[in-house]
Amino acid sequence: SPFSVLGEIVVNEVNFVRKCIATDTSQYDLWGKLVCTNFKISFITDDPMPLQKFHYKNLLLGEHDVPLTCIEQIVTVNDTKRKQKVLGPNQKLKFNPTELIIYCKDFRIVRFRFDEAGPESAKKVCLAIAHYSQPTDLQLLFAFEYVGEIYHDPAKKVNGIDPGGGGGGIGSASGQQTPLFETYSDWDREIKRTGASEWRVCSVNEGYMISTCLPEYFVVPSSLADQDLKLYSYSFIGRRMPLWSWNHPNGSALVRMANIKDVLQQRRIDQRICNAITRSHPLRSDVYKSDLDRCLPNIQEIQAAHIKLKQLCVNEPFEETEEKWLSSLENTHWLEYIRSFLKHSAELVYMMECKHVSVVLQEEEGRDLSCLSASLIQVMLDPYFRTIVGFQSLIQKEWVMAGYQFLDRCNHLKRSDKESPLFLMFLDCVWQLLEQYPAAFEFSEVYLTILHDSARISLFGTFLFNCPHQRVKESTEFAISKNIQLGDEKGLRFPCVWDWSLQFTSRDRLLFHNPLYVGGAVKTFKRSKKNYSSTLRGVPPALKNGIISEQEFLPRRNSLILKLKPDFLQQTESQSNSMEQYFRDWFAKPVDLHGVILPRISGTQIKLWKLCYFRWVPEAQINHGGFITAFHKVSLLADEVDMLNRNLRQYKSNSSLQGNCSELDQSRMYFRANSSNDTSGAPDFLSSSFPFSPVGNLCRRSILGTPLSKFLSGAKIWLSTETLANED
């Protein structure tokens, strides 16, 4: 049965449904059964997929499946009556639908025809999908159903895996578990890893006694007593006391802080906190404050940009002229906002790295922009966060435990006016850095894209709640209502997204690995030095840093970034001069892949993340093209080097043949040098959408030969149409 996920039940189904593959012809359409379950919508067909040679299999979802939490909008159509209706959760449908169009949050469009299906059954399925994809209550999300089943019958664990484990689950080089930062010891180890000797783990919020939107444990200056913290907490919005994020080897700390709402106490408490942070610095350095609400785009602007970006990539986007399309892209402001986050983070990296001052990120509630800024700064400064396990621990620490409101911002219940894709924007910013410094990251862009998709699967507890306390409160209520005995546990344990074996086979998880990654001695969570493979030590000159010109670095007089940066405008002339000098010097030297990395942010260096946004658009696919072709070649080389290294070790240790066989199979690479599809050339199924397949999603008219297809094939986006015409 395709419904093998525990707790999944079929709610409604209809036979003789046609899945439309192209808008202008029905020759590729598939016939099958449309099914709505309490977890996903499924289309079951025996027809082979047309034109498709490859499918990356998710163990939870079939290739035609859409998780209910990934559905954005449901549109029913009746051709003969010329009627169309967007279906809300409890609405009635007065006509029998001849067509159903589903718009997904990952930019997919899926379309079904009911010409041969029973009209009543078709109507029932549409209403069921509308009802189950727009639940009225958090406890109606599928994760609760799944976990309820497991607690009633522990023998049913999927693959024998406990829900809630932070499993590395990806065969990461260190084989470590991802720290979840739910315990005192995880925070303590992070203090030791970063050498933050003047900071301590504080347990004053145990049982969420002070703030329901903070974690139970967090890190504070050693000089602040628990009693003082309790007292100060009343003055902060949400009682969110300052949170330590990270320590630089030079002693500078990165701290997040909500606004102080008590105007009378504001200066006194602010001074106390800053003094404590200063006392925790070995040089007793000043504290530099950045007011994120004043110098970065707000969540409404980011949401508006995302809606425009989606319209551009989803709504018949490819029939306009190049100028029009590119100016539409610019008008979304998406890339502009990515640039401002990268630039702002780089400036704060300079403050910590060069000025040796601690940085406080100040934001009204301290749980939106500061998640993104704090994470980006750490990715730039600490190579541990550029490994897979390190990156996962960063998301746990700065997003999940720090109270980023995934439920509201991802709008899992489809009724929030607080929706905003900050988490996607963070992944996009990291992708920009990965694109600029491919050898500095252990993970690939496929990993980042799948991580984005996983936030839309309602099985995992990781991205389901607004804060850790909400998980405990809601799941305890649920347990009581279902007679589940919790024992000593604080709430139910949900499956963890970091347990990748729930979604992918170990072979498919190899696509998460970046073959260009140059491993080295990275201070891991246990503070032991792990040696990663030394493959590709010599970075080709193309990957080394180009020099960025002063004009490119400094924003134009009237650019958005200057308007966004009042706090930086107030700096003295010498301060901004020394910052420019720092950036100039840094870009003039070759990159240390295990040191600081800084973004290049001039016009053309911030790019559109095509794999994430264009992968479902069949016309935007370049067969045998895209980054994957280089990925494939480098994987074969890296695999060959690994194999030679293994053979050399075998030879030196004169080990038996038995050992030889098992070790030779331990490739880190998805594409292997010794496999059947190897050296003769790239496999037939590679395309710019790989490992995703847009086949089966709605096609538009062909765009071959249009300016957009040239842009997708890598034409410079500032070229005019005339230039493109001349190129031909």
UniProtKB/TrEMBL annotation:
Top-level taxon in the UniProt lineage: Eukaryota
Keyword Membrane included in the entry's annotation: no
Family as reported in the entry's similarity comment: Belongs to the protein-tyrosine phosphatase family. Non-receptor class myotubularin subfamily.
SUPFAM superfamilies: (Phosphotyrosine protein) phosphatases II (SSF52799), PH domain-like (SSF50729)
All copies of domain Myotubularin phosphatase, residue ranges: 181-613
Single Gene Ontology BP annotation: phosphatidylinositol dephosphorylation
Keyword entries, A-Z: Phosphoprotein
Taxonomic path: Eukaryota, Metazoa, Chordata, Craniata, Vertebrata
Keyword Phosphoprotein appears in the UniProt entry: yes
Gene source species: Pygoscelis adeliae
Annotated GO CC locations: cytoplasm; membrane
Protein name per the record: Myotubularin-related protein 10
InterPro entries: MTMR10_PTP, MTMR12-like_C, Myotubularin, Myotubularin-like_Pase_dom, PH-like_dom_sf, Prot-tyrosine_phosphatase-like
CDD domains in UniProt: PTP-MTMR10
